[in-house]
Amino acid sequence: MQIQSLLAVMLGGSLGALTRYLLGWGVAHWFKASHLPLATFLVNMIGCFLIGLLAAFFESKQWGLEHLRLFLMVGFLGSFTTFSTYIWESAILFRTEHMLAGIINLGAQVFLGLLLAAAGWLFYWSVKPGV
After folding, report:
1. 123: part of which helix (H) or strand (E)?
2. How far is CA 52 from CA 8, 27, 35, 78, in A?
3. For residue 120, how many other CB atoms are within 10 A of its CB?
4. Which residues have CB under 8 Å from 66's CB, separation 6+?
5. What angle do CA 71, 75, 80 make, to 5 degrees?
6. CA 27, 34, 43, 16 torsion: positive or negative?
7. pLDDT (tens digit, 0 to 9) for every residue of the chain, 131 residues total?
8. The whole model's pTM is what?
9. What is the radius of gyration, based on Cα positions, of the chain?
10. Which of 21, 11, 20 lies closest to 80, judged by CA?
11. In terms of Cα–Cα distance, which of 83, 80, 66 is closest to 13?
């Protein structure tokens, strides 16, 4: 394992976490009256689209982009999106008797997440610049 790989993941992770925190703060500031965890939903959906887009991008490249891939996909998106928070917030909704909101949160993130990952993939291949 190379030190450059570790640094790429570490730097991407710190920037992804900071971006997630700031976006979460902004969403909470602007959308106060909701039982749905909109901040987590938004970062996860953005992350799903970006992971599809970046997966297509890195698949199309065959030369020396491993550190950039680690920075963006493992580091940045790995800390920007959050499965554990998604599950915890869903559990809170169920525990506080917001059953419908919990079901919507779980189902919408899985279904829309898959659609957005596919959309990111297809978007890249539809506008792909010359390789």
Report:
1. helix 99-127
2. 20, 24, 29, 13
3. 22
4. 5
5. 125
6. positive
7. 799 999 999 999 999 999 999 998 998 888 876 777 888 899 999 999 999 999 899 888 766 688 999 999 999 999 999 888 889 899 999 999 899 999 999 999 999 999 999 999 999 999 976 65
8. 0.83
9. 17
10. 20
11. 80
Residue type, position 103, single letter: I
Find all residues with CB under 8 Å of 35, minimum gap 6, and list them: 93, 98, 101
Please provide the DSSP assignment of 64-101 as one string.
S-HHHHIIIIIIIHHHHS-HHHHHHHHHHHHHTT-HHH
Token code pair at residue 62:
């065959």
Using CA atoms, how far residue 65 sits from 26, 51, 71, 73, 117, in Å, is 33, 15, 10, 12, 21
CA distances from 86 to 36, 39, 90 (A): 11, 10, 6
Quick count: other Cβ atoms within 10 Å of Cβ 27?
18
Length of the chain: 131
Q: Tokens standing for 25?
A: 């703060």
* Domain locations in the chain as residue ranges: 3-30+37-127
